[in-house]
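In response to a reviewer's request, we include the raw inputs and outputs for one of the modeled complexes. The two entities were modeled together in a single run.
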Amino acid sequence: MTTDAPVSLSSIMDGNSFRIADLDRLAPAEQQLVLRRQASLGPSYRLFYRTPVHAVSGSGAYLFDADGTRILDAYNNVPSVGHANPAVVAAVAAQMAKLNTHTRYLQDGIVQYSEQLLATLPDHIGSVMYTNSGSESNDLAIRIARLWTGGQGIVVTAEAYHGTTELLSRVSPAISGGFPDDDTVRIIPAPDSYRVDTEDLGAWFADRVREAFEDLLAHGIRPAALLADSIFSSDGIYPDPRGFLADAVDVVHAHGALFIADEVQPGFVRTGDTFWGFERHGVAADLVSMGKPMGNGIPVAALAGRPEILAHFGKEVPYFNTFGGNSVSIAAAQAVLEFIQSTDLITSVRTTGALIRSGIASLAEGRPLIGDVRGAGLYVGVDIVSDPDTKAPDSAAALGIVNALRERNVLISVAGPGNNVLKIRPPLVFGASEAELLLATLDDVLDEVAPR
Amino acid sequence: MTTDAPVSLSSIMDGNSFRIADLDRLAPAEQQLVLRRQASLGPSYRLFYRTPVHAVSGSGAYLFDADGTRILDAYNNVPSVGHANPAVVAAVAAQMAKLNTHTRYLQDGIVQYSEQLLATLPDHIGSVMYTNSGSESNDLAIRIARLWTGGQGIVVTAEAYHGTTELLSRVSPAISGGFPDDDTVRIIPAPDSYRVDTEDLGAWFADRVREAFEDLLAHGIRPAALLADSIFSSDGIYPDPRGFLADAVDVVHAHGALFIADEVQPGFVRTGDTFWGFERHGVAADLVSMGKPMGNGIPVAALAGRPEILAHFGKEVPYFNTFGGNSVSIAAAQAVLEFIQSTDLITSVRTTGALIRSGIASLAEGRPLIGDVRGAGLYVGVDIVSDPDTKAPDSAAALGIVNALRERNVLISVAGPGNNVLKIRPPLVFGASEAELLLATLDDVLDEVAPR
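The model returned the following structure tokens for the whole complex.
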């Protein structure tokens, strides 16, 4: 069992956590709240930053704390159409007042939304099932892939994180301390475009997938799926070169296995290039799991897929999800989707993302600690290194930047196995003025941390 | 793998499902909607009743369909404080407009609610973690129990249903077609107070638990937990005699294992006797999972437990749940809890439940197909049998009653391995007038199905 294994608390969980030893940094009211919180919630509940944010309200790309201080949110991808987006607020309030029930009754909303959602996906993805979280979607995706292929083998990347269930802890090395003790899982290196020494990252990555599948077969385990998010977010954010995933997905399909696109991070126009992350690579995902930004914070998630694959599962295995597809979650999801489409959000994501990346590239001049600036749309990674030649991760410097930004009321965090990649992943309504504020504040912080 | 095994579609999933062959019973608009729904959602999505309900709005204990017909809801436990409860609607709308974010920021709401929730539980349950569904809570409970005990063995009852994840499919024989192919799981008979021939159901059930634990040990598997809901809802509803679980829980603790109380069904005053189902039996649960009624339909769920057990997990295993404990779900949960407490809901649940049970007992006179009437509070089971001497389940008669009630705009369903136990489990705001309408309609239906 993974849960019995020693664990390393990596970037997803602990890189940027408040430590109780810093309690006296806080005002008395926050100290009290931290202690009450600790007493009732226990140690699983960590807080971000040396000085945690006491969040009280939000609007667009901003949070406001208990003192009324405005804080630029360059981190949160769940409220993707903005904190307290009025269209989502109105849709949820209206549906709450009308009806909130499950999928065993005929309802117009879920049918209409499903058709709208499927219209954003390639034609071969014709069917969708609803859950309450990306975790439930990925857990279901693995069950479905195993039933469809008759195989058990799952391949994931070295710092992947796919969710919270027991099954997903086995395929999430980011939280399981390396190789999980599960002989059906194989872990391959991430396609680290900054550090891997290759002319052709696609061929290199496809070779890693092939080796993993061959190793599974050599151990008598038939491959079921490659499970990956197409920007490799928890591995350190590696979206490029665009298209590099195609060779790997060909390997997957040649083995009769499925490509499960975990779109919890790159989906819903996050990358600014395409509605779904896997589309950037021109690949045909077989199953598409989605979550976080789908309902702007109301729990709602889904698994879309080839209809024949979902139908096979549906006929063989009884599956019912009480809250999954409930009327209010669907209303929230529909409002989000319509906001994305009616505002042409993808265009501003692309523009603002490019602005941020080029701005940081300018800040990097003369500052060797910025080893690499990469990303797609509003998912930007800044690789902080102690030496640009060795490319050695500098977690201390990265966390210093993160906390210095937080002291200046700008929120970002870190990603990657080295806890050294600045993770800039704001609500998608982040515009040019927010990008300028982010860049100016980062410039100040870098002047302090790494003066030219 | 359970998912590879042949499955029996039992009561939870299929006992009361619409069949596409009955499509022409529906009006043209509903036929179209059923076909569109089938095309986009696939065969996992079943509908209740020969004539599905096209639900459009709800209020209190009533649903309204597309024709404006008022339908008495004697089935749904999720909207426990009533469909479209105004207090919950207002709380969600207000919080949505203010802030909806995750638990890595300090927030007052989650701390305040956690303290209120823990105050409803025995003193030894001092800590709580949040998830999005009873499934996520039960999945987490098993991981925690295994880590704490160092054992793997889980014991569940014959028709138990504990959720949708891969791990839970292994401990949910109701959906896995009998004994799951997992050598760490043992399945024991349900404490069927109607059919088991014993003077002392508690001693009998404790013996079953002891045998299962001893069998685990004989196979070198250390017991981790007994996982049960204290009214054995999917087994056929067996809440009595009150206190019978005590001996079994003693056996569990004597083995160093944990009792996980799955309170998704009996919690939040459903039984009318105590706030939590396990309290009716005077037992000390170690972990308490909760879900369905917690937020009146907004996805929110939790796992409470002995603080030392949750803390052990929290220190050893990184766990973060993106939507779990989000501001809006907590606001919904808080409104539900405050409604339960401020209206003294438990008293009306007890009174109305007793009214329903005594009313059905009267209807049973001279009608031998009603073999047994049982329940606690607003969870009532009516055992429909073909012969009161053999007590043979009569699924056809039970489903006939369910569908005849539905045609008269009263919603119930069936439970139990024989699909023959009428499951009456209305929103908790079900009052005397609703009980009278239910009983009068049931009387009419029985006159038709089983005239005296």
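As requested, we also summarize the result in words. Chain A is about 40% helix and 15% strand. Residues 20-77+345-449 of chain A form a domain with the Aspartate Aminotransferase, domain 1 fold (CATH 3.90.1150.10).
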